[in-house]
UniProtKB/TrEMBL annotation:
Organism of this sequence: Nitrosomonas halophila
Primary location group: cytoplasm
CDD domains assigned: CMPK (cd02020), NK (cd02019)
One Pfam family from the record: Cytidylate_kin
Name this protein carries in UniProt: Cytidylate kinase
Domain of life of the native organism: Bacteria
GO biological process, one term: pyrimidine nucleotide metabolic process
Listed NCBIfam families: cmk
EC numbers, comma separated: 2.7.4.25
UniProt xrefs under InterPro entries: Cytidylate_kin (IPR003136), Cytidylate_kinase_dom (IPR011994), P-loop_NTPase (IPR027417)
Keyword Lipid biosynthesis: no
Coiled coil start-end: none
Amino acid sequence: MQVPYKMNDSAVPVITLDGPSASGKGTIARLASQALGFHYLDSGALYRLVALAAMQANVDAHDEQRLADIALHLDVVFSDTSVWLDGKNVGDEIRAESCGEFASRIAHLPALRAGLLDRQRAFRKPPGLVADGRDMGSVVFPDAVLKIYLTASTEERAHRRYKQLMDKGISANIENLLQALRERDERDSNRALSPLQRSGDAKLLDTTCLTIEQVVDKVLEMYAETRDKASGDA
Ligand SMILES: Nc1ncnc2c1ncn2[C@@H]1O[C@H](COP(=O)(O)OP(=O)(O)O)[C@@H](O)[C@H]1O
Ligand SMILES: Nc1ccn([C@H]2C[C@H](O)[C@@H](COP(=O)(O)OP(=O)(O)O)O2)c(=O)n1
């Protein structure tokens, strides 16, 4: 397990991007982190990795203790281009819709979420971090300097996911994707612990009519404004 950065975490700026499935969180967080030279945390990948490991070991979605145990002992390595679980490249496997679905079904379990907390916070290292997920701004990094709630209409998100799957040569059906997105949004938003919701201090960024480049520019602009304000206040 990685050792958390301990010296003075609050001095390391964090930008959080939370939002529903296929809103573009991963794409935008990765590009913004590259532009700023920051580290990047794809927290959804951790939930997907627990889901994959659990599916491979035939662990029941209700077996909180075993799932928490998997979360605590995940042997995972993130590289720029992929993710390695127990020494095996599982980058494509964790992106499967079935894996995202299983991740969403187990993500309400408190012991599992607790088991991933330190691992997520360990990504906070100088010079800064961009983190994406559902509860990055509300629970994992409540002192983030910039919190964004990224969203887009359900139809646009289904269209984006459809195109993404087709580009990878995976067949998909837009109606099924729409239905799956609605179910996942519903489950992620209505769980008791760390639900997907826009917290009061998160800035809303609706990307329905924006290109990827426009969204990245907007995030960088928001971050520059936050820094200007902080230096003006000092
Ligand atoms: N503003 C945008 N306009 C068009 N396509 C986008 C936009 N943002 C993201 N995408 C595309 O949508 C798909 C889903 O994005 P992704 O980053 O995986 O979303 P999330 O992490 O929220 O599930 C990807 O193929 C990505 O390239
Ligand atoms: N911070 C997080 C990240 C993901 N999850 C859960 C809920 C999500 O449906 C699954 C998969 O997340 P992921 O961000 O990879 O999914 P999408 O790319 O948005 O489709 O994991 C969570 O509960 N908290």
